[in-house]
Amino acid sequence: MSSPSQHNEQLAMIEANLAFVHVIYAASTVQIWDVVIHFAEDVELLSLPGRYRAPTVAYFLSRYFFLVSHFLLLTAFNTPECRPSLELAVAIFSFMATVLTLFQFFLRVRVIYCEDSRLKMGLFTILWVLASLGTSFTLVSTTAGPGKTSICIIPPIDFTYVVPVIAILGYDSCVFLAISYQIYKLSWQLVWIKSQASTGVEWGHMDGMLGSTCGYSFRAQASALLGRDLPFLTRAILYDGQIYYLISVASGVATLVLLLNTSISGAYRLLLVPVHLVLVNIMTGYVFRETEDLVVTFTNLDEGRGSRPIAT
C-alpha cells in the first residue's frame, strides 16, 4: 500500500503528463491548421517547373512528416494501453521532419554563400550534420509507461531531452547570424559604392576597397545592417526571412530555459518542446513559400518585359 506522499507524487506526475498532452493537442491543431490553410499554395508549388528540386522536396516532406507524427501521437493518446512502439514511430517521424526542416535552413544559407569558398560551405554542412545528430537523441527519449497503463509516463528529464533543443537552437542561431552578416556585407557594399560613385570615383578604382566602414555615420552603418539599401527582391528574400528565423531562435531560447529549470516537474519542463518544433516548421515553411512567390512574380514580370528570367 502506497503512502500519502507517494500517492501525491503520482497524482502530480499524472497532472503534469496530462498538461503535456493538452499542449500536444494544441500544437497538433496548429500544425494541421497551417497545412490546411496553405493547401492551395502547396498544390500550386507542385505545378512549378522546379517542383522536384531539393528545397521543394524537403519542404513537403518536413511538413507532412510532422503531420504524420501528430496523427500517430493523437492515436497514441487515445489508445487505452501505453505502446512504446507507437511512441517510437512518433519519434522517428518527428526526427525526420526536424532534420528536413534544418536541411531547408542549410539550403538557404548555401544559396546565399554560393560564391564563397568551399571551406565555408563545408562548415555549414558540418553544422547541419551535427545538428541532425543532436536531434537523433529524440529517438532515445521516447515516452514509456510501466506495464499496460492508461497513459505513458514521461521518463525523468536528462541530456537526451536537452541535446536536441541545444542542437536546433545552436544551428538556427548560426544560420541567423551567417545570413545577417551576409545582408550587412551586401548592403554595405551598395552603400559604399553609391557614396564613392557620387564623388566621381570610377568602378575600376573601387576594386579591393570595399568593406571599410571608417568615416561613416552610425545611421549609415545601421541602415546597412538592416539591409535598407538592398534591391527589393534581395531584401525580401534575405531580410524578411530573418524576422521569422529570429522568432524561431527566441522560441528555442525559451524552450531551453524551461527545460533546464529543475524547480518544476519533469513533464512541465517539456511543455514548450512541441510548440517550438511546430513553430520552427511553420516559420521555415512560410519563408519558403514567400521566397517562391517572389521569385515567380519577378520572373513573370521579367518575361513580360522580354528580359532574362530570374534564376531559381
**Strands, count:** 0
What's the level 1 CATH class? Answer: Mainly Alpha
CATH-defined topology: Rhopdopsin 7-helix transmembrane proteins
What percent of the residues sit in helical stretches (DSSP H or I)?
over 70%
Q: Which structural category do the helix and sheet elements fall into?
A: mainly alpha
Low-confidence runs of at least 5 consecutive residues: 201-218, 305-312
Q: Compute the gyration radius: what is it?
A: 24 Å
* Major sheet description: none
* Spatial shape: globular
CATH architecture: Up-down Bundle
Percent range for β-strand residues: under 5%
**What is the end-to-end distance?**
68 Å
Number of domains: 1
Quaternary state of this entry equals: single chain
Number of helical regions? 10
The chain-level mean pLDDT equals: 74
Helix/strand order, N-terminal first:
HHHHHHHHHH
Provide a compact summary of the structure.
The chain crosses the membrane at residues 57-77, 89-109, 121-141, 161-184, 243-261, 267-288. With 312 residues, the protein is mainly α.
Characteristics:
312 residues, mainly alpha, Rhopdopsin 7-helix transmembrane proteins, disordered C terminus
